[in-house]
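Q: Predict the bound structure with S-adenosylmethionine.
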Amino acid sequence: MSNPRNIKQLLAEKKLAPHKKLGQNFLIHRATAEKIARMAGITEEDTVVELGVGFGALTQPMAETAAKVIGLEIDAGIVAWHEEQQDLPENVQLIHQDILQADFRKLAEQTGARVKIVANLPYSVSTPLLFKLIDHQDDIAWAVLMLQKEVSQRLTATINTKNYGILSVIFNSCAAIQTLMEVGPGQFHPRPKVDSQVVRIVFHPKPEKIAKLPDFNGDLLRKIVRSAFQQRRKTLVNALSAGLQQVNKDNILQALEKTAIPPKVRAENVSVEKYIALANALSKPLHSHYPLP
Ligand code: SAM
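A: Predicted complex:
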């Protein structure tokens, strides 16, 4: 597709309705797509994995710089359309696949480097996809993602704010996150009801602030943070006691004391560093009850 603007026309001619369930809000302005591709900072040596190719609005400008683009797309109709049109450049490999099933380890092995991801993410799967990135962080260098503003604000939220939550703590415990640009509903067809933002998430190299922290068990951190925020109106000690049923309240109180976290604070008043310290302090009591395999 030479011009993303044509998408409206194409859908109308083919009497194709964008699938709402698949989060199909296609970029329609070439300049915006080019800007995102440019801001991703792709080099000539890079193989980039694109999640949700659609009609190739981002794929085309990325393929102009990258050595290769591996694009995943779940919609069989769109994959067939590209096959019929043969519109994608030669250095694009289109794969009919659900991004939630993507094997980032295999992609890293295949490309010989940690995976670099770019996506105008379907909003329908953005949260599970974000957690998948966390699970596969060792295989991912960075991801540049267009997200619903509400979600991206949670990734970048700081302590003591209403957006500070599970996503903020988990992502900031293992990555550097930066907002790159704001994108309004008029940039898409169909128009979404919400604003979007493009964020950069860098897992490797680790940000200095994170590299300096002691090693911690990521699964345990996640369990703690989920418990803390699931009942964010409760005091931290009560939220953790309710959520971490394997640990008794005394162990939780001891861990809070050890890490100098007042037991009566709320989840949003605890820094990422303190949550990591808490994960380390709780590691022993938890695993003596439930040894890790
Ligand atoms: N990249 C294109 C653009 O910027 O115009 C399309 C972006 S559109 C927001 C999201 C795309 O992801 C759609 O093409 C949709 O069919 C596809 N998609 C939705 N869910 C998917 C999934 N689970 N796996 C792979 N692709 C998916």
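A: Residues 173 and 209 are 9 Å apart (CA to CA).
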